[in-house]
UniProtKB/TrEMBL annotation:
Coiled coil: none annotated. The chain holds residues 294 to 572 of 575 of the full protein. Residues 23-277 form the EAL domain. This is cyclic-guanylate-specific phosphodiesterase. The lineage of its organism: Bacteria, Pseudomonadati, Pseudomonadota, Gammaproteobacteria, Pseudomonadales. It comes from the Bacteria.
Length: 279
């Protein structure tokens, strides 16, 4: 066992992460994180494949933990979700996003879409629509530039509730994207009565391109079906030129991924947008 230190370390590390003690400590720390201003949003641009222009960006949470350093969402979102803390955190994210929408217009980048992730627990908060109404109203932003990303499981848990919430928010101008598409069990036709304007193909399919013929077939099928339902398609996790070219051939609408840009802090994003608009 001594020889295999790489694997055993990883195992040990993973077990440490799911230990109750660790989770409880993380939860206690997370309670203070908003007020202590330890949470920060990073922004990852989304590129229109037809024009090569930035269409918008996705807001991705980071936690600057005073002792543990930068913690990624895969580690603390589950803790936030279980403890219910995701609800206030999620509203903070939407407030920030609305502020950034205003700033980007003032900086001379109007029309950029800002996408925010909503998890299961947030979506099922009984005060969700009224709280989002209030945030949008106070921020006085162009609501058609705010996009909320939801997974199939969040929407399919209670389809009637989902339909009511999406319609109410959609009437305000907010649009919806189906996140991580292809990983769940529902089909797009189950969701076609919902006001969803965009489908995001999960990055696992993009990363399987060139390795499995299935990935190609699945991606092709998703794009064709989404387009026939008048939805746009974003491919996430695009890292290589080959992936980009395949997606272009398949008439995918937008891409998001390290090939083009990583998630970055707001000031870097502003520099990035400035460079893009000059070239
Ligand atoms: P997601 O919504 O599927 O976000 C996309 C994830 O893919 C992000 O991970 C992003 O950094 C990563 N990514 C983007 N391009 C590439 C690429 O080319 N290659 C690879 N390997 N990865 C790429 P991140 O930032 O670690 O976020 C993980 C998940 O945490 C998100 O997955 C989302 O489910 C959740 N999350 C992040 N921010 C929030 C938030 O504000 N609220 C909620 N509820 N969930 C959030
Ligand atoms: Ca997302
Ligand atoms: Ca996703
Ligand atoms: Ca994901």
């Amino acid at each position: 066992a001594k020889r295999d230190t790489g694997t055993s370390y990883r195992f040990y590390n993973r077990e440490l992460h799911i230990s109750t003690g660790y989770q409880l400590r993380l939860e206690t720390d997370l309670r203070h994180a908003i007020r202590a201003q330890e949470l920060e949003l990073y922004y990852q641009p989304r590129i229109d494949l037809a024009t090569g222009e930035v269409r918008g960006m996705e807001c991705l949470l980071r936690w600057n933990h005073p002792k543990r350093g930068m913690i990624g969402p895969d580690e603390f979102i589950p803790v936030a979700e279980r403890s219910g803390l995701i609800v206030p955190i999620g509203y903070w994210v939407i407030e920030q996003a609305c502020q950034r929408l205003q700033e980007s217009a003032e900086l001379g980048f109007p029309g950029l879409v800002l996408a925010v992730n909503l998890s299961f627990r947030q979506f099922h908060d009984p005060k969700m629509t009224e709280t989002i109404f209030r945030i949008i109203f106070n921020a006085n932003v162009d609501t058609s530039l705010l996009e909320l990303e939801l997974t199939e499981s969040a929407m399919m848990h209670d389809p009637e509730y989902a339909q009511r919430c999406l319609r109410e928010l959609n009437q305000l101008g907010v649009s919806f994207a189906l996140d991580d598409f292809g990983t769940g069990y529902s089909s797009l036709s189950n969701l076609q009565h919902l006001p969803i304007s965009l489908v995001k193909i999960d990055k696992s399919f993009i990363q399987d391109l060139g390795k499995s013929a299935d990935a190609e077939h699945i991606i092709r099928a998703i794009i064709t079906l989404a387009h026939s339902l008048h939805m746009s398609v974003v491919a996430e996790g695009v890292e290589t030129k080959e992936q980009l070219e395949f997606l272009q051939q398949q008439h995918c609408d937008e891409i998001q991924g390290y090939y083009f840009a990583r998630p970055m802090p707001w000031n870097e994003l502003v520099q990035f947008l400035t460079q893009q608009s000059r070239s």
